[in-house]
Specification:
single chain; four-stranded mixed sheet; 9% strand
């Protein structure tokens, strides 16, 4: 039921100002479908509803160790063959593996079952520490709430950072989490007020991206030594301060490229890069295209 809620929260209606999606739940046998919380789910559509879908998400289920119905596998293969994006998170990845859609590809699943996926499907390159793995037409996500990460990534990839950020704000989630599953396996209990100070510093940094923001300054604001700050930062976010700031800056640059006609030089200044050349270098390295090409892809303007 959690997986259904995650997909519905991301691709369901969000009110005025945000586009809606044609979201449908389908099953090989429509009707009342049992769920893990004891409340049956009424599914109105059969597999024929998948014939014109642009995105198919195979949801996880308790029976993932058993083969899905052949018709389900055929529908997934047909969708992939016609160019639709096929995705799954948690143990839903086992369904894609059964359909042969993960053969020769990288994939992830819930960390608890990553070994089983690799054992049953040795042709799949399983990455147990990834929150999601994007292989173009096939995307997989890690377990439980990592379904949000996968769905927001799909939204960002297809419709841009501005929409993904808006939806993330609507459901009160970060639009992008750095790091992998390992950081969530054992969440440390806060030892003292330093954790609260760290959160305040991160929020302050989000509002001051136009400034240099050296780690020394962030550590000083958190009232920590640089070494202690770096250690606690990595424990809290799963990444380094430099990587966190870089992704934050690039994400903000994406949003400005999509929603404004500001010159690249001005965008670079607003997100804390010394020049447009530095922004272009980082953008090409991390996003694969220069800022101008990214803007054209989402707005049609230079």
């Amino acid at each position: 039921m959690l997986a259904v809620g995650i997909v519905a929260e991301v691709f369901g209606p969000h009110g005025a100002g945000l586009p809606g999606f044609d979201l449908a739940l389908c099953a090989d046998r429509p009707g009342a479908v049992p769920t893990d919380c004891g409340v049956p789910l009424s599914v109105a559509h059969g597999l024929d509803r998948l014939a014109d879908a642009d995105l198919l998400i195979a949801l996880p289920g308790a029976g993932f160790r058993e083969p899905p119905a052949p018709a389900v596998l055929d529908a997934l293969r047909a969708a992939h063959a016609r160019g639709s994006v096929v995705a799954a998170h948690c143990v839903g990845a086992f369904t894609l593996a059964r359909a042969g859609l993960l053969d020769g590809r990288r994939a992830t699943t819930h960390w608890r079952f990553a070994g089983l996926l690799a054992e049953r499907h040795p042709e799949v390159a399983v990455e147990p520490d990834a929150l999601y793995v994007d292989e173009g037409g096939v995307v997989t996500g890690a377990g439980a709430a990592a379904g949000f990460d996968m769905c927001l990534h799909l939204l960002r990839r297809e419709h841009g950072a501005a929409l993904a950020n808006a939806v993330a704000r609507d459901v009160v989630l970060p639009s992008h989490r750095d790091g992998g599953q390992a950081q969530y396996l054992a969440t440390p209990v806060p030892e003292d007020s330093r954790d609260e100070r760290l959160a305040e510093v991160l929020e302050w940094a989000r509002g001051h991206l136009h400034e240099p923001l050296p780690v020394t300054e962030l550590a000083d604001r958190a009232l920590m030594s640089r070494r202690s700050f770096a250690r606690r930062f990595t424990a809290a976010t799963g990444t380094t301060p430099h990587a966190w700031l870089r992704n934050l800056r690039l994400g903000r640059a994406e949003e400005l490229l999509e929603t404004t006609d500001l010159p690249v030089e001005e965008i670079a200044r607003r997100v804390g890069y010394g020049s447009a050349a530095v922004l272009r270098e980082q953008f090409v390295r991390r996003r694969g295209v220069p800022p101008s090409s990214y803007r054209r892809a989402f707005t049609g303007s230079p």
